[in-house]
Design goal:
The complex is a heterotrimer of chains A (about 300), B (about 350) and C (about 525). By secondary structure, chain A is an all-alpha fold. Helices cover about 70% and strands about 0% of the residues of chain A. Chain A has a single domain, classed as Orthogonal Bundle (ABC transporter involved in vitamin B12 uptake, BtuC), CATH 1.10.3470. Chain C has about 525 residues and is of the alpha/beta class. The chains are: A mainly alpha (about 300), B mainly alpha (about 350), C alpha/beta (about 525).
Amino acid sequence: MGSLVTNLGLLINATLIATPPLLFAGLGSCFSERSGVVNIGIEGMMTIGAFTGAVAGLYTGNGWIAFLCGGLAGAILGLIHAIVCISFHADQTIAGTAINFLGSGLALFLCKALFDNSSDTPALDTTSKLPKIFEGVFPVGSFGSNVLNVYGVAYLVFVLAFVCWFVFYKTKFGSHLRAVGEHPEACESIGIDVYRVRYTCVILSGFMAGLGGAFVTLATINQFRPNVIVGQGFIAIAAVIFGKFTPHGTTWACLLFGLCSGIKTLASMSNTVSPNLISMIPYVVTIIALILFVGRANAPAANGKPFVKAR
Amino acid sequence: MKTKKGILDSNLFYTILAIVIGFAIGAIFLLIAGISPAVAYGKLIDSVFSKPKYMVWTLVYAAPVIFTGLSVAFSFRTGVFNIGAEGQYIVGSVAACVIGILVPLPPVIHPLVCILAAAGAGCLWSLIVGVLKTKRGIHEVLSFIMFNWIAYYLQNYIVNIPIIHKKGGGEATENIKDTARIIFPDGIMKALDCTGAHWGFIFAVIAAIIIFIIIEKTTLGYELKAVGFNKNAAEFAGINVNRSMLTALGISGALAGLGGAVQTLGMAGRLPQLAAQEGYGFEGITVALIAGSNPLGCIFSGIFYGAMKYGGSKLTMVKAPSEVVNIIMGCVIIFIAISQVFKAIFTSIGKKRKEA
Amino acid sequence: MSHQSHMDKNTMVIEMRDIVKKFGDFTANDHINLTLHKGEVHAILGENGAGKSTLMNVLCGLYHPTSGQIFVDGKEVHMNGPRDAIDLGIGMVHQHFMLIQPFTVTDNIILGIEPTKAGVVVDEKLARQKVLELSERYGMKVDPDARIEDISVGMQQRVEILKVLYRGSKVLILDEPTASLTPQEIDELMQIIDNLTKDGKSVILITHKLKEIKACSDTCTVIRQGKYIKTVNVADVDENEMAAMMVGRDVNFKVEKKAMTPGDVVLDIKDLHAKDYRGIEILRGLDLNVRKGEIVGLCGVDGNGQTELVEVLTGLKKAESGSITMLGQDVFNKTPHEVFEAGVSSIPADRQKHGLVLDFSVEDNLIVQHYDEAPFSKHGILDRSVIRSNATDLMEKFDVRPRGAEGKPAGTLSGGNQQKVIIAREVTNDKDLLIAFNPTRGLDVGAIEFVHKYIVDQRNKGRAVLLVSFELDEIMSLSDRIEVIFDGEITGSVAGADADEKELGFMMAGGKKNEN
């Protein structure tokens, strides 16, 4: 019984570590996709966020500032994606592919340029990382410590998910962004600036992807290395499609991926099944869930279509 | 005047322009990092062209990305976006490797069987996604991403199966049997002064020509393109849209699988345990884009990419991060993506000049 | 319905002076003038492509005029987008409704100027109340909570008008407002226009329907090929005069047809049931037949099952139950290819979606049903020279312009020429049945005459023709027999020669013939 509680605690702990990067990126991606701009450059935006977060942590020694810096770095790539897709009407998938190259390329390039040709940044000390809540309150390894003494951001991201839902469905901006993704011409005809809404959303998606990346280097581990972001960006995109392009759906999907990842961590401790097979679980589960429950994804009507202003 | 207009209309001009801009931006980053672009680019060019051996290596590097480039280009031309070439490449190399290690066969036949198995595996991997799309309406980008990761862990799982795992540890499989290798005979290798040369590039060129013929000259290509351009009109005209889409995905997947086969049978000779996705699929997207989705163009853009990868790997000798290649490539893609805008700007400038 | 004017001749609301709008080398508006008074209904008449919509897009701020001046209430204005036009009290109801499908009626009406709490959060309750007030004031019934995708076209139009009124517009521009309404709904719209002008609003009506102009307008400005022709008092001219001004020559609306006796039944549909994309039954036991040598016109308001019927007939959609035969052969729920082989060719309603592969060359579009047959291909290899000469022949015969465009993408042709490509392809298929669905939508008068000629030509050759159209005039001038579809059933049948517009309109709205 006791081991069951401990395992449950470990599972929740592992889930709370794996979910935030996905959820940050996924929620951001909701904004971009719902406003009508496909963003498959999330992975690159997360990578640059992870790198910038780690470096800013080293130089400022303040986890929160570093976290924001990670977001800003992602936002800059978001801005590039926005310029290329919105103002220049480029193919959004192609632009996203380029962003992925740029993100990972820039991160590693700058890392080597800054740290004497090393592809890893020096390790951060605990004080430069994001703070844990309830540090020292619970005994190490106890259920309480596993569930409650996690990085504060891991809880904050769920508050953010609620805020996103609220923005989407209760505010003027949310109404505009959903409308812009469905029928940009209609929005333009009544004076909503389609470009401005889309720019805001795409930059926001870069910012949030950057935060997701920074969480990895400032919380989960304590440095940037080449493979810190391995596919989380793509998983986040999958979660958005899985969650039918809504913030709440995306939250559930990210939690599912996070949970699978938690199971993976837990099961790999037991050493009975190949860790590689266990690692497949999230992806296989997604496919099965799609076959059984979700089916057709209802993407916004104008998603991926460049909008050319009439003049 | 006329020739000038011709240049400004040609896609090749904009592709070259995009490459030039890409290098220029790369140079800026090199300068920021305190490295002379002249030195770095000099090294890049030097390490590709200075010896015939290097040029052969470039072609060796080009072979797998020509295949994944063809895979993506074919999918673009037929209206689907194969973001899953990565996974198909992996299952292709796994299939080739497993047969290369476990099944004893005579020379010539052995690599042929391996290659067919790799094509089959890639085709199947892609077809699953196709069936999910046509039968259940599941977004192909989503399932491709899932299947890339499943393939990735599948490779790592298979690498660790005892009967093919390298005896005495190490994070890779046994070497495949010599009968399965597709390396050049010793004589040719000596003439080229290159120990790693293999048939992969030749195969890639043949594949590109075949794909070109399929797309441009055959009824199959007509059908697939019709579905790719306008699914509704194709269906209205009596073309079986789902079957066409599956055919296109199957061929596209097979091409990526072939890329895995030539790399395994020619270059590596075994499968490593992967620490991250190797990126051949995503590089294929770039190759296809630079080629404007033209199969024959993929040969040249593949060589270009091969040169960048091979030359880039030598950049560390002059203390330049090889990732500058990724930055250049990212910029090249962006500028190709917005080349239509350039075209519009140049044409309007040209017109104004004429009027003035 | 006689028109009673509410026009105040002394109060000019809008003046457009010498408006020029160029797109590249193409001049869409060439020095056009327009004045609008308080309470006036001003019709703008012109063919498709004459430049009516462009002019109105200039007035509502979507386009910048290349040159010219706009005055609102006597003051010159420069608009930098739709927002400025809205602020000046100018609102437009576009022909293709500008509504967000998954949004509710209320959300659509308030979009862009939502009432808010604290400037951020939308006050849904207040919004709903405002919408209800407005709809009562002008007698326009809408359900504020319904989603756009669930309501009728008529109600969608009322939502569009309310959207404009909600923005406090005093000038309403209605672009082809009657395109998909029943005669009864059109009467209702006229009543709404009357209510609006009585309230001091001005209305600009873009249309090419002369009857409607006569019925509700004070003045009419005629535009032809982008040029201003003339502004007339509607009371002073008759329909023929207006038509001549619009087209630039006398027009003969009558289609010449020789007398024919219909032969054997070609297409026979019995008790057909089918569902629409939402899973709601939309064809509810439809019976219909078409015989050799006759044109059967299926008339009805958009949304009564015509689209689904044509989809089922051409194999694009599976029906639930019933029977369909072609010359006795079962074609129920067959694939498009099987249906084609059984003798059905068709001109689709949406030529860009179903008719053509726009990125394909004209020559490739012409073989889209035959690419895998000799002589166009052998052993799976296309024979380009045969494909080219086939295209050259057909383009000559069917007058597809520009000549020499065989290898150009079909998307580069004009709408009329695209339709000619489709007709060339479908007519030369020599099938027993031709289904034509809105075959002249969006075409100019010349192209319409061309299409009509070929449809009648098919009938004269003894083929069966099923004409499905939302244009009552087209149905009445072409059909040998008219069948009325309402709510997924045939509700009435009249001989083409005996057709009476009032009676058809009554049946299209659901009235049974014998009840009239």
